[in-house]
Structures are given as structure tokens and as C-alpha cells.
């Protein structure tokens, strides 16, 4: 669509261009002359980028000089911003920092308390425990860097993360800072390998740096798993954008040539991986929870099975380790283990072995680490979760044996790179011991390793393409703005693949008989990789600012006096974002009402559509039974959906009728199929009109014989509509598979039952559920006994799965994130539009509304930005317009009733 370049159009395009945001810059200009000349070119580039950004992450591969980069970054930022500088370190790393600082002529000091601070020229070092335990307040420092910031990996679930967010940013919520300021304004994180298999870690780093809220990042880039709150899958169409976004605040360097510099002296040593499988005693396989016996042990089944396998296989695994070790008993090597029981077994079996463990005094821990690093201790035992990050053991060691394997890939890869680093001169040997029952764990580890390498390559490609230029990245992303307009029309429908703001501007005023749509739920979802996507917003304010461009156009194109029905749902606000520590509810439906009223619509009320609270809890963890038992004040209620009703004021306020009313035939009226005028029907004993008195067109029949025309709008139907409580019959199209698999009696039996009316009693409802629970028949993944509402303006019977996603799944296509149910569309179209009216959905999605409008004898118009959804929706509307004759369940049942002559009832 070629929109006219007028002020309103330009204002909208300016709004979209302003959406192209990467990471902001909070730092200072940095000249190359300010950086220590000892740093290599790639390290100098990283320091400049850090200083100019002010809040950045350094993901430099092992041996690229991450320590030098951190020291120089905090030194320069402190010199420009004033105040004090702090680097927070993991156990056993401070000696490495002291050595590198001495080479740069930087004075460093390890402290645990504020009274140990001497001057503002020193860079102070401390450990994570000191900050976490409240011994040292980060607010004393202007700039801080977290080395090997693995504490942030457990976003939202660890004490360390929550306290670090509060102590460094000034709020317990990710990316939220009180009064727009930070307790530590300049923040950096550094690690050689962020976990590639747990996107939450990257999002946690972004939150700590103040780049973006975790929940907002989830919405922008990931599709959710409805069965688990934090199981994220990166949208295929968002992969490029996601990694560009990460590259705008995180520097991934695998080798100097990624930034265009020479790789001379930076060749990684050969990695010699050796897997060793030991047999499993399957005779000890524990039975399943149901009591069913198992033939084989499989530690991949769950935590309990894995722990039992670790415990029972220890003697066999230890024997294998000693066998491997015997190849060269005097060699320098590190023995990795996961359990205290394993450490104790190693110490008993290897005289003189030096170990590092949690309950050990810090001085003893650091003494052992430094002794091994300097070659004074030939053999060290430790856990990857303790020593796998930050330590450099390459100078005297090139051999590691793992007494076992586990599910934590990040611990594995980090621990390997304590030895395999740039400047390591020997081949690195890695021996991994596992049991026969742990073959699944090995397979998963190898899969994650491959995924890790893929991520590394993606980031390297982005750096090579764009360097460190945010402008180049922004230019790439801004190309995804708007779409080339596509129009698909057919009998009874017009569909547009376009930005709805631009498409609505070209529509004729007062031409739409009924508007029905499900607007994006603010920033809850993104439907397309496009900046015109409403879900691609920084927050609720920006979302409604974009709505400000489309809603006035909807008002303009709607006929005077007609209805626009808007489907919405409130949103959960995570405890991390509220700063309160518990989840709250954002009243999105209230804000939507205010928005439409602001633009001239009259609010007419809403219909409540009840949803499944059990399924909701699986997505949000908000209403968990266990937590409610601990403290029921944390529990709110389930999140229903709402159909909000807005009316465009009619031209005349004398009787408040629409300019062209939506008429429903009463029991004593007839409609002309030609001129669409309604006439009083003859009295009961008289013959009804067969032809129109004005145009001689064919007339509809009366209510006594109305199957040949539109149904009369009886007093009974009016009462039910006004009450807003409907029952759904569940009728849908049969698939060929279902037709083949069902007998006549089964089909009849399936549809003969109906709910019996009774007075509702809460305690009876609970007792029924408890009886099912005791019998093991109460599902945990959906609500089996959903209460049926008798209250006004509540629909409890919407068939949730009756959507076009059924057809999407059957065709192997991508499902819509939240499609509209047929029940909602059908009821609304019949109630608020006339046959022949044009029904508009300006957020078309899979085109459910035009699809159902065609079936209801209306013209369907849909606008959709996403090309895949648009094309799928066009195929459904074409099928509806062609009146494809697929039998429904009721059609089939009716035929069989005639054939069986009541046999199904007896069955």
C-alpha cells in the first residue's frame, strides 16, 4: 500500500523507527592512547567498547586476556567517573588478578570490609561470598565488574541473584532501578563461556546490566512451553535478531581474527576426548511409581534414578579412574567429581591427594589452588561447580579425569577450559567415566556441546559482519520494518498482508458493520520479526502509543452505532519485575477500556470467558498448590479472558439506534432476501408473504417454518444472550482418521449425554474432586472439574481447543500463539452483525474471524502483518468460501440415528 506522505503517516513512521533499539550507551569516549600499551590489539578494542558502553559483558574465550580487559576497563571508567572500583571474583582467582595487575602497573587489594579501603587509586578485589553475606556494600563503588558471573545463572531462583540485583542496581527486579539511578552506575560481567543451552543465563546478564527485563526479553525472542514456565525455545524467525541484540551489549570473541586482528600465538591445543563406559547392574532397577517393575536402570529418567546410579556405581567408576591413572601415576592432573562421597573415596584410594571442598577454610582452599596452579601440587581433586570457573591450570597440567558425568554442561565446558586455553603448549587429555545406564546423559552432553559450538559460530559471524558497530546492527534490524502489501480476495472475503495502521487508513469510512479482534496482549507475545508488530514494544506505554495510531482508524471505518468487540486477557507481572518478591496482575483489560474510550468509543460492557486455572499455573507457577499450603496470601485467582464491547456513537442520539441497525427477526416478522427490509408477518391463520411488497423479492419464512431462512430471534434467545451465559455443543469437523476409527454406536454415545441442572454446592464439588484424587484420577495438567457459572456475563463453556490451530497442526504448520476460539467468533458475529455485513478483524492472525464470518453469511475482512499466518488464513477462507462439504459430528450422528432406528439409545 502506498500511503500518502502526510503528517499522520510521517508521525507513525517516526514512531516505528524509534522502536529500533539495541543496547544503550552509558559510558565515555575512550581514546586508544588511554589504554596500556601492553594490551594486544583485540584486548584494546574490547576495552574501548566496554568504556564507551558503560555496561557491557565480555565473553572472551579462554586465554584471550579477559583479566587484562577487566582491569583496564574498570581503571579507565573509574578515572572518568570518579569514585572507587571493584572486581568481584570466584574462589582462587585473586592471585591471577594480582599477577596481571602488576604487569599493568595497577595497584589492587583484596578486601572483605569497607574499613579496609585505603584510597581511590586502588582497584579492590573481593569474593562473591563477601557481597552475598552483606559484609561489603557495592554502593560504595562507582564501577564494578563480576568475573565469572555464574551466580547470575540461576535467575530469579537463587539468593545470590536476587541480592546482587538489589545491591548493584537498587532493585530486586531485573533491569529496574529506583528513580532511574543505580547503586553502581557502571557495571560489567565477564565469563569465557556463557551457557549456550540455558538462555536464561544470557537474559540474567542483560537484566543485571540494565539492558532489558527478563520477562520482556522472553516475550520478544522466545516461544513458551505451556507446561513449564521457564522452558524457552528461540523463535526460528527471531534467531538473527536475538543474537544481534546480544551482540549489542555482549562481546563474544573466540580468537583475535573475529575483530580483524592476527591470530598469531592464539592456536588452541588439540583436545583428546576419551569416553569410558562401565557396566550397570540392572538387577537393582527400582520399580516405577505405579509399582510396575523395570528391566533396566536408566539414570536419564529423573533426579532420583540418577542419584541412585551415582551411588551404586561408585566402586566401578573409581576402579576405572585408578586404571586410567595408572598409565602415568606421577603426572600432573586434576580429578573432577560431583559428590562428597566421591571425594572421600578418592582420598582413601590415592595417598597424598590434595582436595578442595566447601567446608574447608578459605585459606586452605586458596593454598591448594595456588599450589596446583604453580606446579607444587601434582594432583588436585575438586568439583567443577567450585573450581571450574576462573582458575588457570594450564601451566603445569594438561590431563583431567572425570569420575562421573552429569546434566550441567556449563560446569563441564568451564572445567575443561581450565586446561585447554590459548598459550597451552600440550595436547589436552580429557577422560570421562560414565555408566551404561548414563548413555542418555552422554548423548545429551554431546548434543549440548554441538549447540555450544553453533552458538559460538553464530556470534563470531555477527562480530565479523558488523565488528563492534551498533549502527551497523541497527541498520540490519531496521530493514524488518513493514511488509510489501499483498491482497487476497475471494467470494465473501478480502484479506490484507500489511501493517494494519497503513491498511486501515485506506479503508472507506463507515463501511464496516462489525469489528471483532483479539488485540496483542501488550508485550506478552510477538507474532512476527517486524518492528510494526505491536508486541515488539518496550512496555505497555509504547504498546498503547502504537494503538493510538490504529484505534482512531477503526472508529472511522465502523458504521455509526455499530459494535467493536475486543478480546483481551490480563497479564501476570513476575515478582522480579514488581520488586515486591511476588507476582501481581497487570489489569490489561482496564487499560484497554480506557484506551478505546479515549478515542471516542462508548464502553458497553464485557463478557467474561473462564479459562483453565491448572493449565495457567503450569505456565506461571503463580497458583501452586504447595505454595498456597505454605501461605495462601500469595495466591490470587485464575486469569479469565474478556470480550470488551465498544460502540461507535450513532449519528443521531434521538433514539440511540445505529444508523443501520443490526436487526433480528422477531417471531412475527419477515425479511426480504433482496432489499433486506423487514415486514410484519401475516397473522397466524393467514398465509405468509411469499414475495416482497416493494421489490417482489423472495421473503423468508416465519418462526413456524424458519429452517429455510434466518432463525427468528425469539424471546428465549434474547434472554440467553442478555444473560451472557451460553453452552457450547462442541460440534466440529471430523477428520478422516476419526471417521475410520469410530463405530455408529460410539458416535451416538459420544453426543447423547448432556449436563444435568442442579443447585451448586461448593463442598459437594470439593468432595467429588477429592474422591477422584484418592483414586489417582485427578489430572495435574488440566482442570477436570471446572465449575459452570450461573452468573451474568460469564462464559464457562468455550471450547478452548476449537480453533484453527487444529488445522495448523494437522498440516504441520506453525501454530498461532493465541488463536481465537470459534465459539467466541460465532456468537459475536451472529449477535452484533446483519447477514451481508462486512466483519473486520484488524489483527487477523490465522483469519478466524473472516473464516467464521463467511460461514455466517457475512463478508470477512482481515489484516495481518505476519506473512505465514496471512497465507495460512487465506487458505482457510478460500476453503470456507468454496463451501467444502466436510461432515460434522452432528451431521454424521443424525444420519446414523435414522439407520439405527434407536439402536444407539439402547447401547
UniProtKB/TrEMBL annotation:
Signal peptide annotation: none
Gene Ontology biological-process entries: methylation
Gene Ontology terms for molecular function: methyltransferase activity
Keyword annotations: Methyltransferase, Transferase
InterPro entries for this protein: DNA_methylase_N4/N6, P-loop_NTPase, SAM-dependent_MTases_sf
Any Pfam family hit: N6_N4_Mtase
Keyword Methyltransferase recorded: yes
Name of the protein in its database record: DNA methyltransferase
Organism: Luteolibacter arcticus
